[in-house]
Amino acid sequence: MALIECRFFSQVLGLMSTMNVILPNLPPLEVEANRVPRQRPYPTLYLLHGLSDDHTVWQRRTQIERYVEAFDLAVVMPAVQRSFYANSVTGEMYWTFISEEVPLAARSFFPLSAAREENYVAGLSMGGYGAFKLALACPERFAAGASLSGALDIVYRLQEEEKIGGDAVQRVFGSSDRLAGSPDDLFRLARETALRGAQPSLYQWCGTDDFLYEDNRRFREHARAVGLAVTYEEGPGGHEWPCWDQQIQRVLNWLPGLRRL
C-alpha cells in the first residue's frame, strides 16, 4: 500500500488544497514525480470526512489502509473544511470542487479509472450527506454511494438550527426556505434520480442511538417511496468512530463490482 498526500492549487476555490490517496500494491519507491506505473486504472472510492474533521481522519480513526489491502481499489480522501460539500451562499464553491475538480485532479496525478462502474463514494455524517449528494446528482459517474450516520435530512437540520440560533448549516445554505427543494436537498435529488435511467446503488447505515437516526429513517422511507433501491441497515451505537470503523468494512464488501485481490 502507498499513502500519498497531494497538495494542489484549486482553481475553483482559489487556494491550496489537500487530499490523501491510498494506492494498492505499490511500493513507495515506485511513486515518482506524479507518475505511478500501472497498466490498468484503479477503481476508486472517494471517502468523505465529517463536519469537524479533515482529509486525514479516516486514517487516524479507522484502519482503512489495512481494510483496502484486500481489494483492487484506490481511496481518495479530500479536504473540504466545514462546507457540507456545497456551493455556499457566501460564494465558496465546494460542490464544484468535489464534484468536478477533485476527480480530475486525482486522475491527473494517479492512474484512476473514469468509468462509472469503477467509481464509488462514501462518507460519514456531513460526508454521508456529501456521498449521497454525489451519487444522486451524478449517477452517470458513480456506481454506488454509501452513507454512514449521514446528515441526510439537511433541511430539517437547518430548521432545527434556526430555532436555536446555530450557524454550522446556515452559513452554508442560508435559510431553510431557500434550501428546501433546491439541488442541495437530498429528498429532491432522490425523486429526480428515481426517474433517470442510471441509478446508483445506495447503502445507508445509522446507529439507533445516533442523534441523526430519525433523519436517516425519514430519508430511507422517502427513497423507497419514490422508487430508489436502498440497502438500509441499523444497529446499536451513536455518532462515534467505533461504529464507523466497523461499518466501512461492510461498505467495502458491499461495493458492487469491486474485485478482491
Describe the overall structure.
The protein is an alpha/beta fold. The chain has one domain: Alpha/Beta hydrolase fold, catalytic domain (Rossmann fold), CATH 3.40.50. 36% of the residues lie in helices and 20% in strands. It has 10 helices and 8 strands. It has helices spanning 57-61, 64-67, 94-109, 126-137, 154-164, 170-173, 176-179, 186-194, 213-226, 241-254; strands spanning 2-10, 15-23, 44-48, 74-78, 119-124, 144-148, 201-207, 230-235. α9 links the parallel β7 (201-207) and β8 (230-235). α4 runs parallel beside α8 and α8 runs parallel beside α9 (213-226). It starts with a strand and ends in a 7-residue tail after the last helix.
Summarize this entry quickly:
With 261 residues, this protein is α/β, with parallel strands linked by helices. The protein has helices at residues 57-61, 64-67, 94-109, 126-137, 154-164, 170-173, 176-179, 186-194, 213-226, 241-254, and strands at 2-10, 15-23, 44-48, 74-78, 119-124, 144-148, 201-207, 230-235.
